[in-house]
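Need a sequence for this fold. Nothing fancy.
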């Protein structure tokens, strides 16, 4: 599943993983580094976590750097993606940022609505637009949605709305960018064992989630990352506009 079959050191393709320091993002950064990409992993608040990941990857002889990025800031996204496209051959972009809350519809505040849409949807629109402008021809974009976008569970109205929008936007992007050979796909994880899940969800709810799918376990960040790396690879060359469930058969 190499990024490129034959590459010289100068031609090493770059993969930008927005939110690449986080749970699923870090596993994706590792998978793409192993596939031969020079990985740029962004963080927002947790610089130490991202720097530790970069140290791990460089110690294993991979090319990796960490960049601070607020993915909800249009100018920052535009500048970073443009700079990376000027510095090297930017062929993969993965958008990971996201977070949820458990607020009832009747209780949700204007601030919660704005923040959820900004983080889960607006940031994805910025990333898709920048990918369309600056990604190399025949590159690959993967956005990270959630099984919630399909299941629409109660008390997740803002998250579900935003992730459903991210899926729709990714499908439009796939159609617009296909003429340049750029593929755009979405992965839809189910409950995945990350710090975000552990810090927002009770043990009881996590236990219930881990037995509710067909394979009767929580997903791991690597379960999701391997699918993302596949979607970025040449093996997925005819896959675009797809939404891929990575949820252990959850329905
Ligand atoms: N874990 C699950 O059960 C699950 C299930 C379905 C879907 N997902 C989706 O999977 C994705 C990753 O989730 P995760 O569990 O791996 O969570 P995570 O570890 O919290 O990862 C989120 C990443 O996004 C970054 N981020 C947050 N706000 C940002 C901002 N404004 N600008 C740039 N980056 C920002 C975080 O950076 P810092 O840490 O540096 O702030 C972190 O690297 C999310 O989109 C989530 O909705 C997760």
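Here you go.
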């Amino acid at each position: 599943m190499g990024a490129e079959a034959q590459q010289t050191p100068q031609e090493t393709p770059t993969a930008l993983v927005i939110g690449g320091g986080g749970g699923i993002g870090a596993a994706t950064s590792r998978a793409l580094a192993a596939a031969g990409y020079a990985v740029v992993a962004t963080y927002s608040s947790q610089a130490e976590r991202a720097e530790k990941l970069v140290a791990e990857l460089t110690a294993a002889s991979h090319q990796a750097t960490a960049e601070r990025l607020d993915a909800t800031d249009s100018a920052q996204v535009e500048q970073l993606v443009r700079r990376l496209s000027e510095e090297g051959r930017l062929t993969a972009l993965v958008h990971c940022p996201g977070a949820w809350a458990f607020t009832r519809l009747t209780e949700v505040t204007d601030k919660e609505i704005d923040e959820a849409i900004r983080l889960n949807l607006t940031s994805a629109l910025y990333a898709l637009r920048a990918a369309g402008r600056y990604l190399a021809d025949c590159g690959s974009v993967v956005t990270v949605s959630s099984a919630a976008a399909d299941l629409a569970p109660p008390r997740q109205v803002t998250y579900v709305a935003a992730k459903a929008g991210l899926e729709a936007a990714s499908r439009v992007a796939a159609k617009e960018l296909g003429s340049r050979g750029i593929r755009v796909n979405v992965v839809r994880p189910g409950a995945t064992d990350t710090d975000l899940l552990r810090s927002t969800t009770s043990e009881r709810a996590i236990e219930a989630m881990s037995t509710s799918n067909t394979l009767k376990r929580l997903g791991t960040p690597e379960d999701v990352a391997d699918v993302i790396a596949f979607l970025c690879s040449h093996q997925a060359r005819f896959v675009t506009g797809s939404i891929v469930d990575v949820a252990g058969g959850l329905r």
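For context: Residues 19, 21-25, 42-46, 69-72, 96-98, 119, 144, 146, 189, 191-192, 194-197 surround NAP (CB under 6 Å).
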